[in-house]
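Thread amino acids onto this structure.
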């Protein structure tokens, strides 16, 4: 996001080099179950508005972003099949920035709401005791608050932001349910380049980490809750038009 050009922004981008690490630890048995996704790519779009306040001492931003993976599949070992896999994200955020006079630095709070989705198109299976398997899905609805900093040296703008994620609703992990809603964090780094007053390019990296527990399997209610770590790392290259 440039700190010079106000108005409506429309962006298109591609995400590639995405990674996901899902680690599930069962303390009752010592078993560790892992799922990793490597280099799933996709496309996204963003829409937002940037404006100035108080004689350019403050600025504000509100925007929405949507991403979906393309041509993504995973190996389902228990049924020995490759299944279609979907990763998607929608996020709405707002930022208020303070621009001290005489400096290229701006900083301020950020907040937002959003949803992450990670699903498998599992087929009907036979010969398995439970038709509904335990799955490394990842469907989260969340709110976030944090701090964003911007540094501009025209035509470049560097943006770094960190947020606390509070998940308010979580989908099932196959036949397992969440014991307590996840907590986590998000770190964003974006480098923007102004090609013209109406056009810019951006390179962005984002890391997310969620920590939570799964309730014991319904058939083994006496076991301890399982500990889960769900981490994501993504890179995106985008173009932004300014109206």
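Threaded sequence (243 positions):
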């Amino acid at each position: 996001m440039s700190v010079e050009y106000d108005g409506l922004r429309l962006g298109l981008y591609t995400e590639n080099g995405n990674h996901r690490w899902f680690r599930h630890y069962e303390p009752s048995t010592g078993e560790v179950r892992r799922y990793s996704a490597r280099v799933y790519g996709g496309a996204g779009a963003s829409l937002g508005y940037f404006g100035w306040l108080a004689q350019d001492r403050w600025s504000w931003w509100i925007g929405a972003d949507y991403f979906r993976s393309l041509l993504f599949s995973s190996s389902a070992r228990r049924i020995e099949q490759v299944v279609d896999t979907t990763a998607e994200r929608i996020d709405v955020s707002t930022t208020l920035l303070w621009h001290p006079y005489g400096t290229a630095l701006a900083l301020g709070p950020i907040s937002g709401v959003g949803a992450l989705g990670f699903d498998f198109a599992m087929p009907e299976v036979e010969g398995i005791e439970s038709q509904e398997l335990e799955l490394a899905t990842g469907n989260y609805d969340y709110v976030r608050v944090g701090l964003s900093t911007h540094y501009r040296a025209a035509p470049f703008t560097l943006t770094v932001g960190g947020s606390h994620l509070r998940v308010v609703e979580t989908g099932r992990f196959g036949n397992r349910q969440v014991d307590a809603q996840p907590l986590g964090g998000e770190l964003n780094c974006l480098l923007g380049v102004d090609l013209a007053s109406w056009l810019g390019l951006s390179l962005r990296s984002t890391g997310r980490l969620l920590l939570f527990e799964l309730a014991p399997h319904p058939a083994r209610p006496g076991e301890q809750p399982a500990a889960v770590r769900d981490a994501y790392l993504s890179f995106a290259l985008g173009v932004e038009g300014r109206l």
